[in-house]
Amino acid sequence: MPGATIDSLTTFGELLKYLRHRARMTQRELGIAVGYSEAQIARLERGRRLPDLATIRAQMIPALHLEDEPEVAARLVELAEQARGKPAAPAAPVVAPPEKTSAEAAPVAATAAKRRNNLPAPLTRFIGHARDITEITHLLASNRLVTLTGPGGMGKTRLALQVARAITNTGDYPDGVWLVELAPLVDPTSLVRAVADEFKVADEPCCTPTELLVAYLEPRQLVLILDNCEHLINAAADLTEHLLTACPQLRVLATSREALRIAGEVNWRVPPMTTPDPANPPPLEQMANYEAIQLFVEHAQSAQPGFDLTLEVAPVVAQICYRLDGIPLAIEMAAAQVAVMTPQEIAARLDDRFALLASVRRTALQRQSTLHAALDWSYNLLSEPERLLLARLAVFVNGFTVDAAQAVCGDGTGEEKTEDRGQRPEVRSEKQEARSKKREARSGKQEAGDGKQAAGEETTELVAGHFLPTASVLPLLLQLVNKSLVIADSHEGQTRYRLLETIRQYAMEKLSESGETDRIYERLTSYIISLAVVRASGGSGPPATDLLNRLEAELGNVRALMAWARARPDDGVTSLNLASALSALWVSRGYLVEATVWLMEALARGTAAPTALRVEALNGLLRLLAFRGYNLSPWSGYADEVVRLSEQIDNPIERFEALYWAGYTAMQRMDYPAAQSQFDSALALARGMPYSHGMVVALCGLIWIRLKRGENTDALLTQALELAQEGARRADRARGDASQFDVCSVINNLAAVDLRAALEIGESEVTRLREMERPEELAITLQLFAELLLISADYARAETVLLECLALWRDVGVQWNVGSGTARTMLDLGMMAWLSHDWDSARSWYEQSLELYRHVGDVERVARLHILIGYTRIAKGDLASAHVIIERGLTLYREADQPAGMVLALTALGTLALAQGHAERAARIFGAAAAPRDMLLSFSICPANSVIQNHEIAAARSQLSVLYKAAWEEGMTLTLDQALDYVRETTSQPPRDP
Fold this sequence. Notes:
Layout: H1 12-22, H2 27-34, H3 38-45, H4 53-63, H5 70-83, H6 108-111, H7 130-142, E1 145-149, H8 156-168, E2 177-181, H9 191-198, H10 209-217, E3 223-227, H11 233-246, E4 251-256, E5 265-269, H12 284-287, H13 291-303, H14 314-323, H15 328-336, H16 343-348, H17 353-356, H18 371-379, H19 384-392, H20 402-409, H21 430-448, H22 473-482, E6 487-491, E7 494-498, H23 501-514, H24 517-531, H25 545-553, H26 555-566, H27 573-581, H28 583-589, H29 592-604, H30 611-627, H31 636-646, H32 652-668, H33 672-687, H34 693-709, H35 714-730, H36 740-751, H37 755-772, H38 775-791, H39 795-812, E8 815-816, E9 819-820, H40 821-835, H41 839-856, H42 859-875, H43 879-895, H44 899-915, H45 919-930, H46 947-959, H47 965-972, H48 976-986
Parallel strand pairs: 1-4, 1-5, 2-3, 3-4
Antiparallel strand pairs: 6-7, 8-9
Helix pairs in contact: 2-3, 4-5, 7-8, 9-10, 13-15, 19-22, 19-23, 20-24, 24-26, 27-29, 27-30, 29-30, 30-31, 30-32, 31-32, 32-33, 32-34, 33-34, 34-35, 34-36, 35-36, 36-37, 36-38, 37-38, 38-39, 38-40, 39-40, 40-41, 41-42, 42-43, 42-44, 43-44, 44-45, 44-46, 44-48, 45-47, 45-48
């Protein structure tokens, strides 16, 4: 009813229809609000039904938001009385307050100024975002445009309304806070009219709607909330800019999935609700401190009044909230399912979350009726290239860099193959504009109608074979960030992008529809392998830490690739390629068990693979098993196979490694003639190579054989030491020469035979390197020299050398594959302090070392340091916390399947049992720790690693009387698993033996 006023409407039906339209309600919605049918409302508006005065006063006036407009409410009652042929009766609930009676004759447009807001009353309690509300309120006080952005379902609207309620009564905005909901709008040209309607600004022939709206807003000091701008983003940006320019006291709070991008805008990204880490959940009493948990519980209790967050249920709810990315809409929908299934059943179905999560509210908007519909709303607003990129990004389950996105998602560096692709996202052709309007129209139809797709609409499915030039990936990616579909995380000067898991699953669905899934996974495989360094051309130096960090950041993506490859029965090559290429990462960062499983599974599949690849994989598997501390005898078949296959390829490095591992395996099964034969062959092959590292390694193998036989090793040790020293002097690692690591390895071998001689050579090496001013090599050698001093119990001198080494490491700042040199020196200083009975210093050094090893990701040393810190707590009498931290170290070793570490933990638990007064139990545990294990190496390659263990076992022997000899011998008969089970079973015993 353009231009209509209250006074111009003379019948109850006309006024009711006018007020319903103004309230943006359908006949059905008004009927629901007042308890009528849609047909009854229609008859009232057509004058075919007499109005009921009681219903009007009690139901209709609140439903039409007339409580703050008493003159309008009075007019509605008056016309209702006339329709019934009666004079109007007094109506106390709608009498205007005395201070407002002077405005009774004002036009309808003026009445809006008397209302402070048009905010809907909340139906449920608002949860979370307390700090956000405060900060947004402050931002709005100092900025005239604040836009709340985020993906669908993140709670932008509810947060905006909560901010609005917080500022309504502050007095800062005397003309109120006004909400305009844009989601139902279809045509951008209707935007101005929608805003004007909220202020009851009538059309006038003299001016345009925009001019009338400006005239109304210009003198007023208020906040305008524009809710859900994304589908009308250009029109919303234009109108907002125009109003802010023309109305100096106006402030705008907008919600949108992308920013308006106009001058003066502050973009506030709405964060997910806080969720606990399901891998490390907090105690039950702290669980309710998390916003997502509060929201789930509240909605679950609405669905099932008896629901309670019990000790059993809490971790499952934490998992649900975490996997749903803290998205409020998704959490509400999941909680509603508690009416028909348990939280455990909900969690089990989250892999198909789009089928699971649907709203149970009849009045839910179409775009919020299911989680899938909420994402469809955003997806339908994207350009075709943006959709294509979003779908391809689904293969990154652990985030990605720009380089990765370009390598995996781009199709080359050329221009688009169709006329409207490849442009910068902010430059839109006429065709793109037309397509955008068509999508807006489609979105509007789905929102306002019954959700069915109109006939003849353009399909939103991806088409296989779309072309996405590499050069367009970055600008398109930034557009997806702007549209809240991709998150950009910056850390230490580097940006890594990711998709929330809910969005990633949706994008994976679109990728599957495109038929490109295998092609994109193959590209991801190629990209990961291109990052990895398989072998440093036979060199002995460690991989660079920055490379390892990059590879570790992709670990989640590697796991997804492995899962994809496993699902292809004829593809064993991908798994072999990945597991072999990343061998440096597996060893350096402690992912030994996982990589071993992958390699064994891929090798067992029997899929035809290039011989060279199978050789590389077999060598890698044997290397992994050795690093896990296993005796390789059970895997001698792999060693035999790799030697045989290596003869068929032209790769001397892989051939050398095959011979080396075959010798190593034969030595561990005590077949010394076979071991010597393989090491001799490896040495002969290495002599023909232009570098010395291979010869040093092969000679060390021969030295081990002679040690096991009790034979003289002087000549071999001298030869190996001279070769290593010569290679270290050249220091040409790119060529593959031996390094100072090899020198130290030879000296370590010598220590197993003659500790005094090893100390003398170590000291001479230190002197030589000091004279040559080679700080890195000096630090490496000081480290070894100090550890030899520790073994010889020269603690005072060891401390002096270690402190010098620590200062060098800090100056050099180099990190090696064993972690940080600084961290290892701190670990050794802790051992030295502990052996000197300085428990506080030992704990301090250990804790500093632990922090550094956590940073570089050295799992083995993190586990070991937990156990060493446990020793310091035992020494201080803090037995309860000692038990906790030792158990953590044991758990890490069990997860990594490192039996040598498990034995170290057993020894610590034996010490703990002794401190608790359980002498018999301690004897049994120490016996198990001291027992020789077939699965373990028969000698220690690094004697310093077992100093504490040997010390504790020797101390226990001296403390335990002969009465406990039987218990000790019984412990020696236990397998490692039996010993660990025994420890678990006896932890609940009383503090003293009977």
